[in-house]
Amino acid sequence: MGRYIDDILQPGEKVLYSATAHWIVYWQAIACWIVAALALAATRLVVNEGVTLTGLSIAAIVGGAALIYSMKAWFHRWTTETDVTTQRVVHKTGFIQRSTFEMNIDKVESVDVEQSVLGRIFGYGDVTILGVGEGKKTIKCISSPLDFRSHITAR
Hints:
Blueprint: H1 4-8, E1 15-19, H2 27-43, H3 49-79, E2 81-85, E3 88-93, E4 99-104, E5 108-114, H4 117-122, E6 124-131, E7 135-143, H5 145-153
């Protein structure tokens, strides 16, 4: 399976910039892995067998949740494509149930970037594209949102 953008490019159209969902989408998985590791490490510090079994149970349950969150975030990053071409902005999410958004570059009225403090530190944010007669579309948790905006607005 190739990239979606490669399948829909028009003759003479070129990809100028490709963006992905930022690695911060893994934050829930990372937090769960840390809690599971701490619970597992805590079982090594106690001598009581009941407390040890409780700690191992907690580590297993939280580790299972961490695995689910990891797979969900990986699948989201794998199935999300955001590109700027010479003619349009294209955003695709999903695998079997696909959702796409395309806007002609000439129809883009404004591009807004929202970044939290953590977003500024780690380089992610939300980009809202407002189009003339096209409505508005927000792309959440995109990496390097200022670069993405620059590639849309630079002509």
